[in-house]
Amino acid sequence: MDLQLAGxxxxxxxxxxxxxxxxAIQLAAEGVSVTLVARDADRLAQTAASITxxxxxxxxxxxxxxxxxxxxxxxxxxxxxPDILVNNGAGMPPGDFRAWDRACWLxxxxxxxxxxxDMIRRAVDGMTARGFGRxxxxxxxxxxxxxxxxxxxxxxxxxxxxxxxxxxxxxVGKNVTINNVLPGIIDSDAxxxxxRELAHQTGRSYESLWQERAAANPAKRFGKAEExxxxxxxxxxxxxxxxxxxxxxxxxxxxxxxx
Length: 259
Prior knowledge:
This protein has eight helices and seven strands. The protein is α/β, with parallel strands linked by helices and 259 residues long. The protein has one domain (9-184, 224-250): NAD(P)-binding Rossmann-like Domain (Rossmann fold), CATH 3.40.50.720. Strands 3-2-1-4-5-6-7 form a seven-stranded parallel beta sheet, sandwiched between helices. InterPro entries: NAD(P)-bd_dom_sf, SDR, SDR_fam. Belongs to the short-chain dehydrogenases/reductases (SDR) family.
């Protein structure tokens, strides 16, 4: 399927590794000019060079911590008129809510809710003026199936989803859609870090926890970053223009609810 994205411009956050990197590569393969954003300069440079060589479309990058307002401004100086915005970034580590003080909660909100909302604020009016825009928030299955140890993520990411759902209905008439992708267990750097932290907290081995999580999933495996990237790319497509305010699980069927 031709997603009809060639010639469009995208900002992809968290693009130096994992799912963000896979999304940037997939969009570039569709002919999108991508601006990669992350904090790791070396990884960003390597990813941008790989994408440019692979796609023939120059990829640029911005080294930025998106919790900083000035850093977000620099991203839009590099790509002032994005047609696509993919909000994606690391979350907070698992833990016990009794240990989380106000500073922990504010850090989580800055990282997983307020920074993505400001990225949307900077992008959405230009999209509506041009008559095309696709915004995808990469969040987590925890917004539908909360895990107690992921309380910081449950709260902050759910706030982003709720905000996005309200805004999506205001802008879809201008051919701008806003959707959320909810990955489950994906074989990524973030997942490995999460399991390592669980191993540290529980005293269990990393290997046993990793195997247990895979076996517990109906698909009997971890998902691939490329599978998430394909989902995001479709939601960015011309064909997906009637899909908005949705939260799509990519979790191998792990969520046990009907809706």
